Amino acid sequence: MKSREQEYREIFVAEALEYYDALSRHISELEKSPKDEKLLAEIFRLLHNLKANAKAIGFINISDLSHKLETAFGLIRNKELNFSDEVVTVLFDGVDMLGELITNLDNPNYKEATNEVLLRNLDLIVETPDISTLEVVKVQRDYNAKNLSLSELIYIQIKKLDHMMNLVGELIIDRDRILSLSKELGSSDLASVSSHLYRITEELQFSVMDARLVNVGTLFNKFPRIVRDIAVAEKKQIHLEISGQDIQIDRNILQIITDSLLHLMRNAITHGIEGPDERLSKGKEAEGNVWLSAQNDRDMVNIKLRDDGKGINLDDMKRAIVQRGFLTSDVVNDLRDTEILSYIFEPGFSLAKEITEFSGRGVGLDVVKNAIDSIGGRLRVESEIGIGTTFTLHLPTSIAVKGALLFEVAGGFFAIPLMHTDSVVALHNHQLHEVGDMLVAEIMNETISVLYLDELLNAPEGQMRLGDKRVLKGNEQNIIIVTYNNRKLGLIVDKLLRQQDIVIKPLNKPVDNIDIYGGVTLLGTGKVCLVLDVPAITRYFISKR
């Protein structure tokens, strides 16, 4: 398996070779049209980028040579140096030297040529633009011993990868169908073919998914400037620490969460971190701290944004929940801290006391929550008064294919994405208690509300008996504990099946308007399996409390 350093090196070489080819072509064109400003600007841009990229990865010789050529073309742009035949020769030699350095980076037998005359000529051009002082040198090249080579890396449009991923999804559905048929028919030949198909499809799936991966650093590295601008506007001192930039994630997921992460950063600086005077009065450093990090967690990526600000005051949260009519005061007082904090993501909820340039303009954290939900992720908030606040984004590495838990309810097949699945337990009926019109159970030292899925899916609206144990089937209940927005909910199902990767397809009209369904998939048996929308079920349950 390649190291990150080797991958970066290969990407640099591929890009640098493209720059080299473009430079050679543009200089030839410029020789015919020496006053073409667009050509000069493009050559200058290519050399500038090559210089910066080479310096960043540690290839100082390439960076230095690019810098000398960049300076020379800068003089040409500024009309301080004529693009004469003698100058063209020196510049072509310089570009050829770049090509040699780039193509021989991985050649252990290559001895870097000093070509002292070339470097001296470049220095003369840059320092004293007088072509009469140039030393004439003929570089002998045998273009028949010279080999042309193409880059081993290519750039692919995202929409092409998206299309490939959709085709892989269709293939996975058919693969599972063939596997099921091979078991039904008992054919050893078909079983052998289906087994091989399974391996090939799985490898193809991971290959396409791998091609869509990008480093989160492509997003993270934009934040130092953003933080600086917000801090200046808010008259605050902020230190940003970034880690985990080399963690990889699906490019589409990173695109979707971009605005969300920006909103959370603004929120942390404007609302979370105190001003310098207030921090000093609390015994803190005047400079506030923000940590932005990413790390792998099995088949997920966790992105954390943490600040050492004032934290979220739970008493203020309780008052706001009651004042905005979400819950009554007696119900609020019975909530756990995590449940209280979850209301920060409700539409229209805000503790902001004033409008600033970067926050308080009616765009709440519910927008962030909806974006994370749309890709099957989870958003969690933890806060300690006076210590700070942490937002954690639990994100899938891929959108198209998701791990799911399959089960049966009333003869129908259903699935819940593993992203929202906390655990699975089996409880006897006497372990379920009726509290008001709700069922609750003590599960792993937590009191969790329990919902009977058969009632939710099949009982007419207004006739659901959520807390009635008489509707239960059998003496023992299979319960899937799901989690959403810092809240846990137990879902009673008839029969647990298995975990399986599924391809979720959108529902057709008119059932696409039913909130509790997030899509549909096909099982290997050809049966239709509805995918439940855990956020929608949780919101529905809360509205019934």
Explain what this protein looks like in three dimensions.
Strand 11 (432-435) and strand 12 (438-443) form a beta hairpin. This protein has four domains: 4-133, Up-down Bundle (Four Helix Bundle (Hemerythrin (Met), subunit A)), CATH 1.20.120; 159-209, Helix Hairpins (Orthogonal Bundle); 214-312 and 351-396, Histidine kinase-like ATPase, C-terminal domain (Heat Shock Protein 90, 2-Layer Sandwich); 401-544, Beta Barrel (OB fold (Dihydrolipoamide Acetyltransferase, E2P)), CATH 2.40.50. It has helices at residues 4-32, 37-57, 60-77, 85-103, 116-127, 158-185, 188-211, 217-220, 223-234, 251-272, 276-281, 314-323, 329-332, 337-342, 365-374, 453-458, 534-544; strands at residues 213-215, 238-243, 248-250, 288-297, 300-307, 378-384, 388-396, 401-409, 412-417, 421-428, 432-435, 438-443, 446-452, 476-484, 487-493, 495-503, 517-522, 528-532. The strands form four sheets. A six-stranded mixed sheet has the order 10-14-15-13-12-11. The two termini are 52 Å apart. Mean pLDDT is 81; it is low at 136-144 and 354-363. It is an alpha+beta fold. Helix 1 packs antiparallel against helix 2, helix 3 (60-77) packs antiparallel against helix 4 and helix 9 runs parallel beside helix 10. It contains 17 helices and 18 strands.
